[in-house]
Amino acid sequence: MRIFLHDFAGHPFPLPLSRALAARGHTVLHCYCASLQTTPRGSLDAQPDDPATFHLEGLSLGAPLEKYALVKRWRQERAYGKLVAEAVTRFRPEVVLSGNTPLDAQKQLLQRSHALGARFLFWVQDLIGIATERLLEHKSKLLGMTVGQYYVNLERRLLTDSDAVVLITPDFGPIMEAYHLPRKKVHVIENWAPLDEVPVRPKHNAWADRHGLSGKKCLIYTGTLGMKHNPELLLQLAAHFREDSAVRVVVISQGKGADWLTKQKAERKLENLLILGFQPFEVMPDVLAAADVLLAVLEPDAGIFSVPSKVLTYLCAARPVLLAVPPENLAARIVARHEAGRVVSPRDADGFVQAAGDLLADEERWRQMGRNARRYAEQTFDIEKITDAFEYVLSA
Q1: pTM, entire model
Q2: SS3 sequence, 5-59?
Q3: Domain range holding 266?
Q4: Do both 140 and 277 map to the same domain?
Q5: Which CATH number does the domain housing residue 212 bear?
Q6: Distance (Å, whole) CA 115 – CA 111
Q7: Which residues of the chain are under the pLDDT cut of 70?
Q8: What is the pLDDT of residues 291-318, one digit of tens each?
């Protein structure tokens, strides 16, 4: 098959899928948005051992995507839709798999795919329409009722028009039923992390040395800090441990949330709070290894439409995970079920701080949780089995 795999965000984990499909003889073009700078990326370079049938292309708008300027972002996303539609026209695939894609761009990609006679698979990483509606409601009831509802309806139409739908969690299933999608059209394939690219590394490593973290107890957050995350929880951690010279709170992110934390750090003189930009994916094993505890946060009303994929990468690193996410979220259920860390309510700031302190104080316990985390990753993130599942859906 000729497969056009589009991962707008350029995440690390879809790349092994594209390479594995190409290794099985399929011709694969893996596309992503090269203008997105507020999301951590995978290693988006060709590798010496890439299959000859694997191709990689970044699509650039010529300027960074303005995530927080709503009108400009809307224009850019429509312009990006034109770019990705042109890319699929050049490639002329038999099937298209597209995830993480702004809905205005997804619409253009779906329409062009069908015009070319290609099947279109909607890879539902987040329920973008519902997310947009709820997040805009926080800004303005009118925006939520107008713009938000427009995107809810648009996403529903796109899901209906798709030839198949791939969900990353069964939790999205009831919404698909409410949209009256036929069950035979909906498939569940949970996300994974690139296990081979995140080996277990020693805590004392070159990256930790470079940032003055060797010999410190580190609480590390990596990834997006957007509207569905609460950086206040990370700030409270730093404030709580400010008098403990052995503890560092490290935030690896870019964008609005990281900028807010930088300002708060200066105003409150939190020297124990280290804020860094996104790190190259090649050094992420050392970044994660420097942690005693890895952190993730998700706002209460985001639990229904989002699963933080960073948590899956964390599990590979053999470190305990501390989540402030709704307990019903898939990531929370994985961590709790496999005793790979602690889960607290995103509204329980005191519980979040207390859990961090408890984990740092009990080395034997956090080591066991780290072993549990890695064991789950090794048992679950088998790229060949994952590719089997996608190959079945792609060829159905």
Answers
A1: 0.90
A2: EEECCCCCCHHHHHHHHHHCCCEEEEEEECCCCCCCCCCCCCCCCCCCCEEEEEE
A3: 197-380
A4: no
A5: 3.40.50.2000
A6: 6
A7: 135-145, 226-228, 301-305
A8: 999 999 987 765 566 777 889 999 999 9
